[in-house]
Amino acid sequence: xxxxxxxxxxxxxxxxxxxxxxxxxxxxxxxxxxxxxxxxxxxxxxxxxxxxxxxxxxxxxxxxxxxxxxxxxxxxxxxxxxxxxxxxxxxxxxxxxxxxxxxxxxxxxxxxxxxxxxxxxxxxxxxxxxxxxxxxxxxxxxxxxxxxxxxxxxxxxxxxxxxxxxxxxxxxxxxxxxxxxxxxxxxxxxxxxxxxxxxxxxxxxxxxxxxxxxxxxxxxxxxxxxxxxxxxxxxxxxxxxxxxxxxxxxxxxxxxxxxxxxxxxxxxxxxxxxxxxxxxxxxxxxxxxxxxxxxxxxxxxxxxxxxxxxxxxxxxxxxxxxxxxxxxxxxxxxxxxxxxxxxxxxxxxxxxxxxxxxxxxxxxxxxxxxxxxxxxxxxxxxxxxxxxxxxxxxxxxxxxxxxxxxxxxxxxxxxxxxxxxxxxxxxxxxxxxxxxxxxxxxxxxxxxxxxxxxxxxxxxxxxxxxxxxxxxxxxxxxxxxxxxxxxxxxxxxxxxxxxxxxxxxxxxxxxxxxxxxxxxxxxxxxxxxxxxxxxxxxxxxxxxxxxxxxxxxxxxxxxxxxxxxxxxxxxxxxxxxxxxxxxxxxxxxxxxxxxxxxxxxxxxxxxxxxxxxxxxxxxxxxxxxxxxxxxxxxxxxxxxxxxxxxxxxxxxxxxxxxxxxxxxxxxxxxxxxxxxxxxxxxxxxxxxxxxxxxxxxxxxxxxxxxxxxxxxxxxxxxxxxxxxxxxxxxxxxxxxxxxxxxxxxxxxxxxxxxxxxx
Length: 758
Description:
It is a single chain. 42% of the residues lie in helices and 13% in strands. By secondary structure, the protein is of the alpha+beta class. Strands 9, 10, 11, 12, 13, 14, 15 and 16 form an 8-stranded mixed β-sheet that branches. The protein starts with 38 loop residues before the first strand and ends with a strand.
């Protein structure tokens, strides 16, 4: 499932650009003349399949050596105490293995009655790990494996597997506890090579039997543990050339572990132990590899061994000297099998490799139209919520479509109540948004790169495009939160919708220009606040961070993407601490927020920065620290306040139904099923009409009918949340009389209705 990672590299790729809308006097920065991307990556779900940012569509993918499932045997623990169970009697006490050295260690291992008795070795820690796996111990066992391999009979009659598993366990434990076990150097490297060379020199290592497969499976994995993929390229070539559907189960498992060898072997850059040098020395391996797929094409079925190993052939494109030989091979494979269905993991991963390593050369693979080919098949559902909002999905029911539309429409009103903005930024023509929802993370990672030309190592992507360009399409590309099923949710939907609203109403111009000064504290912080606040959910992660008091407020004004080396720390600073900084400022210093947003809305990034870093500076740091402890860590950070906006004047017209362009009427009422009808005259040139309702009791819904009376059955727009707080924003309304109404979903009274136009 394609290269992806989840934000950010877990989350924080630097966004690219938002083109500046025109219309402001002498705007800072370059004028918008071409469409460019403003790309917000979405934090990847912790439930995403893998952190590996390369090809990830297999349960076998692993960046490091992994241990087997523990068997119920008696073993040594870190404290030196011995534990036991009834089943442990079959294996005996492993303390002899942990404590032994030299020939006695080899004797203890060979005395174990079965391979699975070694499994607890993978869990050793502390002093037991040091005693068992220090380099001298590993060299002893590697030398024993070399000697044993000379007489290997194609099965485990001489306990070959126990020796191999000890070495595997040692590499695994040392990789995770190097400070305890100690370093591994040239002595072990030489001994391990000798052992592997001897094993593969024995013809019985190539027996296609379950008995050999039980050992070969672990020896192939040991290649990966020793990081010697390049040295044993010939072994992989033999396995690729010989594999077919008749191989027994244990040999199949050995073939699956070849995936680890080929994948991790490509990660050894500038290292003669990896695949790059080996493939340049013997490019015929590439032909064998492609033939492995076509010869076994009948087996292709999403996660089978042919798909798992075959898709890694695309990594070889990262070696420039191999590209001429690879292009026709990959062209054949990508176009030989369907790009949807069970063969998609092979074809789409190989297609992604051409984009990743041979970008701009799609014609060589006959896939320049790949995105348009797969689009109708993978995203067949199209639904319009409003003229400004539509959904394209892989698989959503009518009920799911309706609930998503309702969520976004109501969030729009919530956003404006919190922000108190004065309308869209002049010249911003991003009047509509397309929400794209893949069925799950796997489908997103397989297809979104091809259809929308985005990176998919994240949890989704908001693409703003050029908001000054007529016809520009803002788009949020996402996936369902499949792990929450049967509940339905689009991952980070409300967070990303806030980015759309924030870009339209708060952030002027080109995003790259905005990034000349740090604005991420606001951009991601307001998205988190609106998302959690609108859904009335507690931001537990941010509240936990508040108790740690990691950052001063003045530091958070400096936040940028990719600032912290550790991706998890970076994600915390951008999202959790962005939430905290914005929440504090909205609660405690709304006037400062209005000043900063006033600068952001005109593109005066330097002015906003001056206010944050000089006017405010460190003045609020002490109060912020107190707020983190008193208001946040112990009181869930308090409520998100609505903006303080001066109320419009009372309407002066004699007819209680009539409004002026900017006025309010109070005390409106109607009984269930009835209406409070209203209208307003708009001269030519009005760019935006905003109608809001609030206060009172009951449940009044707001409808807009344009040039006709507005009813529940005949209207152009509506806001139908619970209670009476509703907002409708009508861009480019017609001139003349326009009509709107409050419809009584329940009896309501005492409601205030306001019109504002610009």
